[in-house]
Design brief:
By secondary structure, the protein is an all-alpha fold.
Length: about 250
Amino acid sequence: MGKKETDKEKKKGILTSLHDAVDSVKASAQNAKLLEIKAPEIKVPEKAKEMFQKKLRKTEPENTADPLAAEAISTRNAIKVIYYLMAADGEVFHSEEEKFDAIGAESDPDFAENKEQIVKECKNQMDKAIDPEDYYDVLQDGVAFALSPSVQTENAFITPKLLIWDLLTVAYSDESYDETERRLLKHIVRKLNIDKSVFLEMESSILALMDLEKELSWIKTTDRPYLTIDAMVNELANRKNVIFESVKDLIAL
């Protein structure tokens, strides 16, 4: 058997697989051209038009979508949101900073040069808390500004669903999904107008992947025959692939 993967390599693998898979979807969306079809002009009697409009007002569902929600998030602001999530429990630990660095490097080729300024801006926002009980509200304000369409000016960006997946990966990677982290993550889901069923399915998927990683690690430490271990590893790998395909479909929708 080959060299065992470290925990850091496993966590990075989950991130890289989804980012690479989504790149092709994002590129297709950017290059797609919509055909403009002009409908023939039809004259409708005014009375009939009024009746139709009244019916629409009665039957059309109210649009509850946030008109200010961003359709794409600049990588710089996405990295800020990730930092705010890591800081939600009051402290950013060394292990969390390693994950932050891995995501930043994957998302932004200039992350090494930009990191110090990004973190400084996040800390300046967090320092606005007047009393300890203000801390969560200040984080939420920082997230709201980072996700505002008015500040999405960079060419490099990620999609809202991919950002949610990255946030879940960070939240679960240390096996300590704090309630405050989940509260902030749910706020981000609402801010981005992501359907709650999509978020819950992503949560379920990341939990399943974490469980499979644990099972893989355990199997590789057993003294069972090589062929038995190899068959079990392949089966778990197939199950991981099924989950990845499901998550890719969710992100691409």
